Amino acid sequence: MSASGQPAAPTAFRHLRLLTYNIQVGIPTRRYRDYLTHGWKHLLPSPERMGNLDRIAALIADYDIIGLQETDAGSLRSHFLNQTEYLALRAGLPYWNHQTNRRLGHLGQHSLGLIARQPPRELDCVPLPGRVRGRGAMVARFGGSDDEVLVIVTHLALGSRTRLQQMDFLARLVGHHPRAVVMADFNCTPHSPEMRHLIAHTGLRLADGTAPSYPSWKPARPIDHILVTPALSVREARVLPVPYSDHLPVAVEVCLPERCLPHTDHTDRETAP
C-alpha cells in the first residue's frame, strides 16, 4: 500500500542483457595447433581480423552491457585501431571505454573493454594485485546513486595464488552491494577455492551455471562467467557457440527494477581516461 492508503503501483521491471567475452584480440582459433601456427597474429596484422571483429560486433549489438577481455587499444597487430571503440561503433552502441593494463608500444596494448547502451554514472579503472603487474578491473556504476547497478569487468591471473589475492580484492570492491555484476575471464572453475572465496564474501552467485566456455572448438573448462547478487533475478543464461575467439561468450539476461537503469538517448562516444 502507498502512504495514501491506496494500493501501491506495481514495480516496473526491465530486462537487462549482459555479455562477457574474451575476444583474443580478434583472432579466431579452431584447434590447439593454431596457437603455434597462428601465433604471429598476436604481433602482426591479419587480413581476416577485421572481418572477425565485424562478426563480433554483430553478435554484441543485441546486448545492453558488454565486458570484453583481451582487446587491443591500438597497435600494429590491431591495425592501430582501438578494438573496443571499433566494436561499439560497428554494433551501434553509444558508450564505450577501455582500460589498458599492459602497454607494449607498437607491439600491443593489452586492454579490457566496456561497451554499453547507456553511460555509467561513474567509471573507475583500478589495478589488480599480483606479483606481476598488468591485470586490472573496470568498475562502472549505472543508474542513480540510490538504485545503482555495480558492474565490474576483469580478467584474472593464471596462477591460483595470485587469483586468490585478486578475488579478495574483488570481494572488497563488491562488498555488500545489493545489485552487483562481475563479468570476467576468471581463469578458474566455479569449484576452485578462489571462486568459493569470492562467493562466500559477497553473496554473488553464478548466473550462468557451470557450462564450459574454453576452448571454443571443444569446450571443456567453465572459466568465463557472469556473477550477480540475488537482487538481480536471472531470466536466461547461456554460452554462445560462436567460433570468433579461443573462448566462447557468456550471455545472461537479468530482471531488475526499471528505476535502476533509466532509458536514455545518450549518443556520445567516450574514450578511456
If you had to describe this structure to a student in words, what would you say it looks like?
The protein has 273 residues and is an alpha+beta fold. The protein has a single domain, classed as 4-Layer Sandwich (Deoxyribonuclease I, Chain A), CATH 3.60.10. It is built from 5 helices and 12 strands. The radius of gyration is 18 Å and the shape is globular.
Secondary structure: elements and pairs:
Layout: E1 13-22, H1 34-37, H2 47-60, E2 65-72, H3 83-91, E3 95-103, E4 109-116, E5 122-127, E6 136-142, E7 149-155, H4 160-174, E8 180-185, H5 193-200, E9 205-206, E10 224-228, E11 233-239, E12 250-257
Parallel strand pairs: 1-2, 7-8
Antiparallel strand pairs: 1-12, 2-4, 3-4, 5-6, 6-7, 8-10, 9-10, 11-12
Helix pairs in contact: 2-3, 4-5
In short:
This protein is 18% helix and 30% strand.
Beta-strand portion reads 25-35%
Overall structural domain count? 1
The portion of residues assigned to helices is: 10-25%
The strand count comes to 12
Key phrases:
single chain; 273 residues; alpha+beta; Deoxyribonuclease I, Chain A; six-stranded mixed β-sheet; 5 helices; globular; disordered C terminus
